[in-house]
Amino acid sequence: MDSNHGAYNKRFMNSPPQKAAAEAQPLIAVRDVRASSRWYSELLGADPLPEHNHRDFYDRISRAGRLLLQLHAWDEEHHPNLVNAAAAPVGHGVVLWFQVEDFDSAVKCAGELKAEVIEGPLVNPAPQHREIWLRDPDGFVVVISSPDGECAP
Asked: For residues 56 and 61, what is the distance between their CA atoms, to the nearest angstrom?
């Protein structure tokens, strides 16, 4: 472990909690909103949502009333940045990262979903947590991690 890990731990692991000025609400474009919605909902133990007329084009994944991820169909509703899925590599430079309380259950669920495992499960020494790197049905990289400090000595 290099010296940067110690600096990370001092700075972030021991910092007092602060109120967030903003909350992330990521949105990704997918080939099949319903299929992706089922995949993420299962993996993250999301709250069930009532059926709605827009679900073929857009859906929201949430848990305990918190929005985790938005899904939108490619080439629908004239959004200029959600067109032409073949124009670029899927999610190049994007990693969808989710912290979960029950890491072991999420890893088991990933196996049941037959998710492609890219790496892990492993212990990341900087935040002292466990993580697994997966690929979703559209090719996005998804990381599931346990809470920071979970593996602290």
From this structure: 14
CA-to-CA distance for 68 and 24, rounded, in angstroms? 8
> pLDDT-derived band of residue 16, with 50, 70 and 90 as boundaries?
low
Closest by alpha carbon to 152, among 125, 122, 120? 125
The answer to whether residue 133 is domain-embedded is yes
**Would residue 109 count as lying in a domain?**
yes
- Please give the structure tokens belonging to residue 17: 């909690």
Task: Note down the domain range covering 52.
Answer: 25-75+90-145
Q: For residue 137, which of 48, 46, 38, 60 has the smallest C-alpha distance? A: 38
Q: Is the peptide bond before 121 cis (omega within 30 degrees of 0)?
A: yes
pTM summary value: 0.80
CATH at residue 41: 3.10.180.10
